[in-house]
Amino acid sequence: MNRIVELFKIKYPVIQAGMIWCSGWRLASAVSNAGGLGIIGSGSMYPDVLVEHIKKCKQATNHPFAVNLPLLYPDIDKHVESIIKYNVPIVFTSAGSPKKWTKLLKDQGIVVVHVVSSLKFALKSQDAGVDAVVAEGFEAGGHNGKDETTTMCLLPEVANVLDIPVIAAGGIGDGKAMLAAMILGAEGVQLGTRFVVSKESSAHKHFKNKVVEVSEGDTLLTLKELTPVRLIKNQFFSKIEDAYRKGESISYLRDLLGRGRAKKGMFEGDLIEGELEIGQVSSQMSEILPAGKIVSQIIEEFNAAKQNMNSVKFNF
User: Fold this and answer.
1) Domain-by-domain residue ranges, the chain?
2) Residue 198 bridge partners (DSSP)
3) Which of 21, 105, 239, 292 might form a disulfide with 34, Cβ 3.0–4.6 angstroms?
4) pLDDT band at residue 147 under the 50/70/90 scheme
5) CATH number of 3-202+284-299: 3.20.20.70, 3.40.50.10490, 3.40.630.10, 3.40.470.10?
């Protein structure tokens, strides 16, 4: 039996990433109802907004769902209180050390998963007592590791060493990539970009349409001096590139980024001045579908790829 399926009590080891401005209760419940694990992205939510999304998600699904908890969030203690109060069964922590909250959450019977971008932090997470880790490669959208380690390199390193199950993330957009990840040692996959372009995603329709239009090379990891983030190249991105060419300071970059850029781009649909966070696999996206259909397609693609592997004859 697959350990991720057992751990989360789900049908398929397909996890929807908890993306800021894109992952509300509608998306999370739709993915969970389809047999995967839906995640509410709390990083863009005030405490009262998270409570509202948890309540609505519980009304919309009888299946397990999770909350993604960026540990750099200023009101993290309030989010944790809400998660415990409303009996959220699973928490994915990210962007910080898992040591501070893992024990408290696990003492409440909550399954804890931590997102890592290196073997070093995967081992630290295991030592902190998490139940599983997400090994997220350089290809991922949003914020990821400074070292630019790709999923294909990171995943086997982590899976070969850890005793706890590993979920692969970064550059995974279909069932064929899911099969490849599981061959490399993953027991589940986490997809962000493919669920951004779902009907239930809370991303603005302009942003969804832009993602579908993206071609190879249209995204780049930048702003490493602040927090590494993969962005679609637009007018705001050009300003970042110009600042680098001129050798501007970190404080200048921080002022240029300002506040609310991600909301402006992904939630409000400003494709010119907004921060458009998305993964490299966006170049493979071609349509906006219901989340349930996306889950079923991934499983169909996985099974077809597996069957094709069984029929391939190798001559060496």
Assistant:
1) 3-202+284-299, 205-281
2) 289
3) 292
4) confident
5) 3.20.20.70
**Percent of the chain as helix, strand, coil, to the nearest 5:** 45, 15, 40
Q: Return the half-sphere exposure (C-beta side, CA atoms, 13 A cut-off) of residue 38.
A: 34
Whole-angstrom distance, CA of residue 81 vs CA of residue 272: 38
User: Which long-range CB contacts under 8 A does 47-52 form with residues at least 24 apart?
Assistant: 47/75, 47/78, 47/79, 47/82, 50/79, 50/82, 51/82, 51/86, 52/25
Name the phi and psi angles at 39, rounded to 5. -130, 130
Task: State the average pLDDT over residues 25-53.
Answer: 95
Q: Where are the beta strands (DSSP E) in the chain?
A: 14-16, 38-41, 65-70, 90-94, 111-116, 132-136, 142-143, 166-169, 188-191, 219-222, 229-232
Tell me what pLDDT residue 180 has. 96
67 token code pair: 């909350």
d(CA 308, CA 94): 36
